[in-house]
């Protein structure tokens, strides 16, 4: 069975894993289409639940979705709510090309307690652009009383919401906090995950060991994961849950050509430094994460952190992120506040121009060096309100405040998209601050 740690409200097993949008008339048409899909899904939710155990061939059908609109208040840059999304906004415009998603899942119990799962989804990620996509296609096999192995396409359980990252209904917030989840794509892999569960010190213990490979698009380019190995250990007792996890990965990126040919003769060390510090193939790295959750109804406090301590390429920079979120429920209402910080720790490359090189070349090499250091440190605060107004339906309003901590002029293609050197010739006028407002309807069926 897919692992869904500590959902905000109980989530039926069927719902747990587990081109940049246009403006104007095209956006309105897309929002209308999503509204139609949501209406159909909500109208059929009761029927689907009533027939959950009576489908043909013993198949249980279900799914989840989100109908979302967001507004980004900033100038001189564009903002993406999540690194996986293709859409972005600027200048106070409203868009619906980010969190909106619809997923359908089929689950069938097989012989010897096996469990077969297929999940399809459509959303505006960089890999999908609203095309239907297979998120999961796996079989869960029991290995004795305490162990199971999951084989096929799946999401490995690394962070708290790894397997429920896009199941908006399973979370108090609109989406997992970007200061941690912006450093981990969490893409499904084709592989295996072994799980063991037991008891220790008056609580329950869970251990996971997973391995797989995958392909995705992040930051506008393809990423091919040669291997990803994830190990996790979780302990839960009463209202407390703690988890530690570590991951080792190797991946390939698309070739990057950031050094103009005219500059090569004026750079004294680019030919040696760039292949050594910024390769695009066989990139090896390690990530670790930790979480601590206290759920004492009606309160819940979550602290989560991630460290990318090692990487052989500046294109996958060393970084760390952490956040704390506090939420409280009043019957159908839930409020949450959160604060987090993302920091990059990639050292300078030391690109050097020859004596007598033009000033434009010197400035360009400085900008390229800063770009490869990823000076994109970010502080984030958020306030949110959730209203569960119907069976398996919730309406959310969330306000986020973002602030750059190091640099506001170097080009980037992450959460903030900045057309500035070395990605463009003209420096940006972004002041380092942004606000993100999201209105979202989450539902299960």
Describe the structure in your own words.
This is Porin. The protein has 445 residues and is mainly beta. It has a single domain (13-444), classed as Beta Barrel (Porin), CATH 2.40.160.10. It contains six helices and 20 strands. Strand 18 and strand 19 (416-418) form a beta hairpin. It is globular. The two termini are 19 Å apart. Residues 1-29 and 43-54 have low confidence and may be disordered.
Strand content: over 45%
Regions with little confidence, pLDDT below 50 for 5+ residues: 1-29, 43-54
CATH superfamily heading: Porin
Q: Count up the helices.
A: 6
What is the CATH domain class? Answer: Mainly Beta
The CATH topology assignment is Porin
Output the radius of gyration: 23 Å
Mean pLDDT across the residues is 88
Give the N-to-C terminal Cα separation. Answer: 19 Å
Relative helix content: 10-25%
Classify the oligomer: single chain
Shape: globular
Give me the side-by-side strand order of the main sheet: 1-4-5-6-7-8-9-10-11-12-13-14-15-16-17-20
Give, in order, the helices and strands: HHEEEEEEEHEEEEHHEEEEHEEEEE
Architecture (CATH level 2) name: Beta Barrel
Q: What is the number of independent domains?
A: 1
Task: Let me know the largest β-sheet.
Answer: 16 strands, antiparallel, barrel
Q: Find the structural class using helix and strand composition.
A: mainly beta
